[in-house]
Amino acid sequence: MFNEREALRLRLEQLGDAEIQVMRELRKERQDIYSKLRELDRESDPAINKKSSLIDLASAAAEELKQSQHAADKHPSTKTPSYTIFQSKTTIHREAALNILSRHEEGLKGIKLKTEIEKETGFPIKNMTTFMKSLMKHHPEIKKPARGHYILHKEKEF
């Protein structure tokens, strides 16, 4: 009969052997990949494979960004969104909600507001009640006078 301790020791040895075998296979595959890359480097144009420094790459990316901004300034699109690429979905939703509520002085029902926000931003709102509670916390000028009805109270200027 096998002793449990002996069985565990035997299994540990098997795991060690398997680990060594997997490491050898990975090392061999890595060497094959490196040799294939070296072969491709020898075949291709050396000017293309010249390694650029990080500073060169960053300056090239900055130059491309400037050129694309200049092109966008010269040819503005008909509808430019009021948000940038780097804003979160929630921020985009909040801006859209404020814009929509400011256009409707009488306010809107929550479901209508939700569909208009989603249509304007292109992103779905998962829970409208939670979204509006958060929005009202950030913008106290938004009120909920009735169930499911939201309105933007503007301060009157003198």
TrEMBL record:
Source organism superkingdom: Bacteria
Stretches for region Disordered: 65-86
Domain Rok N-terminal oligomerisation: 1-41
Biased composition (Basic and acidic residues): 65-76
Positions of the Repressor Rok winged helix domain: 94-150
One Pfam family per UniProt: WHD_Rok
Protein name: Repressor
